[in-house]
Amino acid sequence: MVFLWTDLLIWSLAALVVGLILWGRTQERWRIGWKQIASRKINFVWMAIILLYAVIALADSVHWHRNNEVVSPSTSCSRRST
Q1: In which region does residue 49 sit, left (phi positive, over 0), alpha (psi from -120 to 50) or beta (all else)?
Q2: Is the Cβ–Cβ distance between 7 and 63 less than 8 Å?
Q3: pLDDT at residue 55 greater than cutoff 70
Q4: Please, what is the Cα angle at 71 between 3 and 76, to 5 degrees?
């Protein structure tokens, strides 16, 4: 795996969001807000959709290498002649 500076920026932002959520759980104002959000099921549906999108976006930022080469979609499915 190789990390580009943009990938590190995205993962740092994700870590910051997780940290803010964990910190917000200790704050009374945030707990009241989460109770208001939790009062309707449709809010959880939208939150699940947004979290699924975020997980897919973070997974897409991972770059896999084979033999020190970036695996692109065109070379990963084609046969290589030896």
Answers
A1: alpha
A2: yes
A3: yes
A4: 155
Q: Does residue 11 surpass a pLDDT of 90?
A: no
Residues ≥6 apart with Cβ < 8 Å to 2: 63, 65, 70
CA 67 to chain centre: 27
32: tokens are 């009241």
User: Are 47 and 41 a contacting pair, CB within 8 Å?
Assistant: no
Residue 81 lies in a domain: no
Q: Which DSSP category does 78 fall into? A: S
Based on the structure, what is the number of domains in the chain?
1
56: tokens are 């897919």
